[in-house]
Amino acid sequence: MEPLKSYKDFINESFDSEEFELEELFTEAVRKRTPDQVMKDAEDKIKEQIGRYSELMKSNPEKADIYKAQLDLVHAKQTVLQMKKKLEQVKAKY
Question: Are residues 63 and 52 in the same domain?
C-alpha cells in the first residue's frame, strides 16, 4: 500500500469512477434532495415561524409590534413560495 500524498487523495480513494473536489463531497447530500423535498422543508419552516411569532405576540404584548413585523415578513416569504410553486407548475406544462 502506498502512502497517501494528500488529504484529497485520501478522500477520493473510495471513489472509483471520477475524482470529486472536496467542495462537491460536502455538498453532495444537499444535491440529492429533490425540489419537492426542499419546498416541503421551506413550508414546514414557515409554518413553524408563524406559530412561534404568534405565540410570542401573545406572551410578550409589549413587543407585539416587532413580532407583527416579523410575522408580516414570514407571510411575504410564504407568498413568494406559493408563487414559485405556480411558476414551476406553469413551466411543467411547456
Answer: yes
